[in-house]
């Protein structure tokens, strides 16, 4: 097992190698010098999502949502609070399913909000519907090694 992880910058999408023992310290991107973790979900397009999925060694928790969706609006502050607790060990990502219909179709998103947890580029868990922070954190921790 390697002792360093690849982390994609949320600003410039540059790939950074961080010693696993120093992941909790955060760090700055070697390309753009911005912080690698902000404690906030990252909103991505399909192409940026594909890069993060392929190049991040940390798990990704992805929220598929739409602006007109009532449960999505309820879920947004919960997802934001989860980012503060789960980063830097997990990157939280938001995908607007209206703007990224091809990606939503490719991943079989049939209802929103839908959360998908990816590890090493592979889907490991999926949940549809809004949930509170305690249940969201428990669900994530149940599925992340």
> Given the C-alpha coordinates, what overall shape results?
globular
What ranges have pLDDT less than 50 throughout 5 or more consecutive residues? none
Report Rg.
Answer: 15 Å
The rounded distance between the terminal residues' Cα atoms is 14 Å
Order of helices and strands: EEEHEHEHEEH
Average pLDDT confidence is: 94
How many helical elements?
A: 4
Structural category is: alpha/beta
Topology record:
Elements: E1 4-8, E2 15-19, E3 42-43, H1 46-55, E4 60-65, H2 70-86, E5 91-96, H3 101-106, E6 114-119, E7 122-128, H4 133-143
Q: Would you mind describing this structure in some detail?
A:
The protein has four helices and seven strands. It has 145 residues and is of the alpha/beta class. The strands form two sheets. Strands 3-5-4-6-7 form a five-stranded mixed sheet, sandwiched between helices. A two-stranded antiparallel sheet has the order 1-2. A hairpin with a 2-residue loop joins β6 and β7. The model has no long low-confidence stretch (mean pLDDT 94).
């Amino acid at each position: 097992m390697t002792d360093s992880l690849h982390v994609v910058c949320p600003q410039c999408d540059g790939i950074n190698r961080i010693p696993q023992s120093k992941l909790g310290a955060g760090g700055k991107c070697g390309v753009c010098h911005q912080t690698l973790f902000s404690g906030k979900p990252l909103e991505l397009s399909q192409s940026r999502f594909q890069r993060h999925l392929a190049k991040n060694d940390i798990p990704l928790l992805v929220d598929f949502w739409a602006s007109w969706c009532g449960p999505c609006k309820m879920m947004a502050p919960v997802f934001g609070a989860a980012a503060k607790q789960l980063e830097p060990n997990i990157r939280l990502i938001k995908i607007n399913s209206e703007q990224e219909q091809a990606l939503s179709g490719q991943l079989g998103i049939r209802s929103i909000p839908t959360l998908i947890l990816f590890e090493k580029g592979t889907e490991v868990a999926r949940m549809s519907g809004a949930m509170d922070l305690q249940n969201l954190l428990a669900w994530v921790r149940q599925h992340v090694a």
